[in-house]
Design brief:
With 215 residues, the protein is α/β, with parallel strands linked by helices. The protein folds into 2 domains: 91 residues, Elongation Factor Tu (Ef-tu), domain 3; 105 residues, Rossmann fold (3-Layer(aba) Sandwich), CATH 3.40.50. The strands form 2 sheets. Strands 4-3-6-1-2-5 form a 6-stranded antiparallel sheet. α3 links the parallel β8 and β9. The longest helix is centred in the middle third of the chain and has 13 residues. The protein is globular.
């Protein structure tokens, strides 16, 4: 099994069928908010791997991923049941759609894309950057962290439609590097919203999580 074995520090419920999994940081592991890792475990004698995007602002002693738990899934129910001290295998980081100390960030997130959204938002705020987050989800998660971002001065909009007129007006006025994270259907809608708001979608840093589970 590729990767480094690391210990679980905590498993916290952060919304409906969603956990924040905090892991010890492997030696020489250097990742930026917005990158993703491969988590692996042996379940019933078979190796199972999945990719999850970082949702912590940094990777000092620990780092976090946000996991949407599918009861019928191969790995996510196993991760949700882990106890502190148990281990998983970590490989990575991977991906080039990550925060690079931009002075202003605009993050569009759908579903589990909220993980990298809060991680980037918190890191950018720590660096003194201007932060805008648009999060599309009918059942939002990470409420406390989104509220904290807004309380600290970020523009945060939670919506069930990324193409809503309020969102388009916000995007038209926002300035900075645009990031888009989510399943394929959300990326299509988000890129269309950027076009409708006269924002150059070609300059966006995007991470496509693939087809939605029910697609």
């Amino acid at each position: 099994m590729d990767g480094t074995e690391v210990a679980v520090r905590s498993v916290e419920t952060v919304g409906t069928d969603t956990i924040a999994l905090t892991l010890e940081t492997p030696p020489e592991f250097d990742a930026r908010p917005g990158q993703f890792v491969q988590l692996a475990a042996t379940i019933d004698g078979e190796e199972v791997t999945r990719h999850y995007t970082l949702s912590s602002p940094d990777v000092g002693e620990t780092f976090e991923t946000t996991v949407e738990v599918d009861p019928e899934g191969s790995l996510s129910p196993y991760l949700a049941a882990l106890e502190p001290g148990e281990t998983v295998q970590v490989a990575g980081p991977f991906g080039d759609a990550y925060y690079e100390d931009e002075e202003s960030v605009v993050v569009l997130a759908g579903g589990p894309g909220v993980g990298p959204a809060v991680g980037i938002g918190e890191r950018a705020q720590q660096d003194g950057a201007t932060v805008t987050v648009v999060y599309e989800d009918a059942d939002p998660v990470h409420d406390e962290r989104l509220t904290a971002l807004a309380d600290a001065g970020a523009e945060v909009v939670v919506t069930d439609d990324v193409s809503d007129e309020e969102v388009l007006e916000l995007l038209a006025d926002a300035r900075g590097q645009t990031f888009v994270y989510g399943f394929a259907d959300f990326l299509d809608r988000a890129m269309a919203a950027l076009d409708a708001a006269n924002v150059d979608a070609d300059d966006a840093k995007t991470e496509n999580f693939g087809p939605a589970p029910d697609a």
